[in-house]
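Data availability excerpt. The first of two example chains:
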Amino acid sequence: MVIEVREARRSDIREIIRIRQAVTPHLATTERRLSAILESANGKSIRQLVASVGRRVVGEALLGVVATSGGMCAAFGNPHVDPDFENRGVGTALAQRVYGYAIVGHAHELHAWVNDSAHATAFAQSHGYVRRRQAKIQRLELSKFNNLSSGLPLGYEIHRALDVGGMEHAIYSAEAKAIADEPGEFIRQGLSFSDWLVTVWNMSLSELSLSSIVTYGSQVVGASYLECDDRGVCASGSTWTDPDHRNQGIAMAAKESALLRAKGHGYSMAYTSNDGRNAAMRRINHRLGYEHFRDEWRYSLKIEANVGSNV
């Protein structure tokens, strides 16, 4: 079986979505979001790969290189394989190409999210990856979800993201400040504004109408983003609060308002993922009614040498 790993094309998008929905059902992937990544990928720090056998796409990987503290770079890459083609070398082919791009990007470490299953963790370990930290993935049946919070203190306002056009850079800056102390958020912390626009803010009109932005006067102080797909599924893209405005109920109110809008628009299931050490956000999710779905682990691989590559 000949496996080809290459840059994704627009004609691959439906197959990428099919594979992701099979392997990571808690993620909401849309044609719009993938199209934006492909359109921005030429010479950029974020790339989308596919593995194919003949004309059939049998695997995919989103990868990127971001700046970290101390002038270093780190890479991320998550290979996903069509379940019908597991144990046939597809994951290895993708992992090798991801590693090659990490070298070319001068990354000192490569990170991947791995499902908490014997097969997936054994695969990561066989390629030299070391287990780092755990993520808790939870889900919420929106048909059972009702209003819980008592609102926000005087001076705070919740807006639909759709209604705050022109404030993108202010939101980006506020988010960067808010997530600076969040466990394991090095990827989001290292995004440039242009990459943030593509990977975070590139929401459809529907997603913008569901997602929440919180302000205090003219200052952006919190947000909760939803990413939604055509299965009736929403996934929390991120929920954050400015450190100077925490303990005011902002995260709870922002996420609750977004979920209520999603329920009103007919979405049936919501997923969220949080670092296992983020006790504050996990308490909020528990209050909102989320239940355990599955766990993932971040695995990391040290890149010992930065040498040339033909990828």
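And the second chain:
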Amino acid sequence: MFQSIKFSFLGFLYKIVCLILYFVDVIFDRHAKVVVLCYKTIGRSDPDSISIDNFKKQINILLKHRNPVSLYDVYYHILDKKALVKKSFAVTFDGGDKSILLVKDFLKENGIKPTVFVISDRKNSSANHQYDCLNKRSLHKLSSEGWDIGCHSDSHADFGKLSSLERKKEIRDSKLKLKKLGFNIRFFSYPYGKYSQSIVSSVKKARYWMALSYDNNVILPRSDLYSVPRIIARNFSFELFFLASISPSVMLLNRLLKKLSIRIDMRYNNNFTLPSYKGY
């Protein structure tokens, strides 16, 4: 009983600190020029899933404050070859779960062209218990509607538990398999967000243009193309919590908590309301 109260209090304290940091960023006009959101599944019961309603709320919040861009726009922004005049956002999905089709039409109506990072070995994937993967036909349909197809490794294995040779195979073979299915793969998403110097080296040798992590950080021109940070979207229904999650100071807080190996359980009820605030 005491333990559950303790963790509930920590979660409440974390939310309050995030809101304070968010308002500080608003007051001093600190914002990320572009943010990349990472979603996994839609409308499912797993902890990383986002309800359909909350997903649409989050996208509508972003559309109020930012322009939707593709990962190619982010790539050229990092290379300093394309200026993003307005604050922008890009949407990505990791795993290639069929549930993302539930929001396909909504995204199309709002002019958003996401990138979906898929697992190439659907039959032997270590993530089969988590993802009900899209088939070739569905992927080509998405591609024809402007979605980009990226790679999330061959089997979604934990790279930290593999040998160097096994990691190289996961990175190289996945790209080759997807190429045989008719997709030109430019971008890579690290399974579980884990990467190291040797993993990055393998990604570069496989000739990916860019690789994305789960690091909470600001993307700038000349940022490292092989550790591009994303923000894992949580199942927030409350606008201020969502806006806070993409503010620079909260990103810094989350990086600090990660370094300290502190994990805040975000699966709490946040269905109370406060006045809306002009955010970013």
